Amino acid sequence: MGETMEEPRRGSWTSAMIIIGLVLAAVAVYYQVSNHAFISFDDNLYVTANAHVQQGITGPGIVWAFGFSESTYWHPLTWLSHMLDVELFDLDSGWHHVMNLLFHVANSILLFTALRMATGSRWKSAFVAALFALHPVNVDTVAWLAERKNLLSTSFWMLTIIAYVHYVRRPTISRYCPVVLAFVLGLIAKPMLVTLPFVLLLLDFWPLSRIAAVQGPKTGATSQFGEAKISRLVAEKLPLLGLALLSVAVSSMSMKAGGMMVAQELVPLSIRVKNAFVSYPMYLGKLFWPADLTFFYPYPEAVPMWQVAGALLVVLAITLAAAWSFRRTPWFIVGWLWFLGTLVPVLGLVQGGLWPAIAERWAYVPSVGIFMVATWGVPHLVGRARVSRTALPVAAGLVIVTCMALTWQQARVWKNDFTLFSHGVAVNPDNYVAQVNLGCTLARKGKYADAISRFQEALRVYPADTLALTGMARAHEAQGEYVKAAEYYLQALRYKPDDAEIRSGLAMLYAETGQEDKAIDLYTRMLEHDPSHAGAEYGLGVLYAKKGDTVRADEHLRRSLRLNPSDAEVHSSLGVVLMNQGRVRDAERHFAEAARIDPKSEEIQGYLAQARRQREKIETDIAALALKRRSEPGNGAVLQTLGMLHAGNGDDAAALEAFMALADLQPDNPGALYNIACLHARGNRTDEAVLWLQKAVNKGFTDWNLLKKDRDLENIRNTTFYRELMERHGG
User: Fold this and answer.
1) 371 pLDDT higher than 90
2) What average pLDDT does this structure show over 381-404?
3) How far is Cα 639 from Cα 389, in angstroms, rounded to an integer?
4) What are phi and psi of 202, to 5 degrees?
């Protein structure tokens, strides 16, 4: 009896040591990511340029996360994960990357746990988990912050399998519920889990041996699971399949809503289908010979039929071999079909955004199937060949050490934009995506000549690349070559006539070169196409401010803020406009908000200090004028100045009192009456505002241009009196 109790205890210690080994090995090769920067390739969409995520966990942010994003498909749990990172670590890129590493380590432990529970084979499960943790193909999933969705969804993939193995030992509703919960959480992290119900059916065959009609070999470890008819096992997966189909529908809706669906003309369906077949051997090659790994693999212009035929032969040959030996080597058919099936959602038949021909990150879960085939298959072959028993552990150790070395090197590639995109160009000079991103990186460093050469290389491969054309335009603009810059912007617009970023760049170029009317026309047309474009509203606000039209400038800048309330530059620009209108207290409030959003901006801090000094001077002047008013109660100039200072300082009640006193003193002063009307209108007292405006007109107020533009009268523009007044005087 003592021996039977000792065995589980020894097994638990062994499992614990395996887990510790997995953790130490993964941390050893990946800890370097704690010093990595954010990458401009999609990290901006998820964190660095995402206003919702940058607020951390907030009520509006949670609502936004569960809505349809304008830039990615629906994965609310992933958004919440990034928001939590910001809440905990602000925008410290090192800690964000460490969280990715922790998820990967957790996934490796969960994979080991799931396989050990299902197969009862501790060391084989450990080797699969080690390959998963340390294989260089998985580097971009770990080192690329934007792939949090892949890591997070895989965590729930593994938890679903663990919950499922727990369920099949004693099938009950209470044990089935955790399966469904983990599956749902995985789907809302990334819809990659849509194939998991089919994987669970594969696991029913092996290692769980639940299929009564077609039994594979049993072991003592798997005999604990009961047998069932295939029809019952399929029915068992129907709730999960229904949830998977719902996830596909929601993802498709979100991609269409965000305009992410890739047009047929960009990547023709024939190329997509051919590439789907060819990609299977390519992924296999990367798993067994992980050389020349890179962040993006562009689609080829054509896929030769001989490649398609060769790929089909490889896939069919392996599939037939697996099917022929499914009773003797059940792990072969299960692992192979795991690999084939889980790649289906990312084969590119339906695409969203910039879609590569293949991507190592997409093999994160599918690779587990191949790792299983290799881990169970090699000992099977070696056993038949009667190789020394020590050969296998030695070979396994060499494989792990080799993977660690390759992964360490590959992780270094992801240190920053320059290392990543330079590596992409080195691997394939015809990779126009790498070339254009390297060009953008060089341009940000001020190396415009080098950037232009990279953009030219990108255009050599893909002349319609609007990102390269726009990059060329900006680089020439930075060098003062405005004519060339305009030519490249216009060329980019020929390919994408409604692209807001290109139009905005051209509009800013026009504004910079004194062609304000052209810039205003471009921004206006942008807003006709997209009324919610905050950048166009901001551009118009700045242009009207330059023209001295502070009323229109104020209007457009406020619209821009309503669309993007966390833009420090817009707050600052609106503050400048308000300062010019004499509304110092309001200006100070916007400068303070801009400084809160961007505390490192010296320009904003300067504006804020200036506004505070001016506000303090106004308060000093108000105090002095208040004393003078007491000594000279009949001085109209004092009352006029006092009213204007109070109004500019945001104290409408005090301003109104001063102008009312002036009106009592000078009942025929149309300016005093007009200012009273404005103050009532600002307070949304429409009837009083109309009454005093009528008095001002009756007493000779004739500044119709001011009447038309004065923002203080916004609340009475729809009144009958105001409309008729404007009609009579050319409004």
Assistant:
1) yes
2) 85
3) 103
4) -60, -45
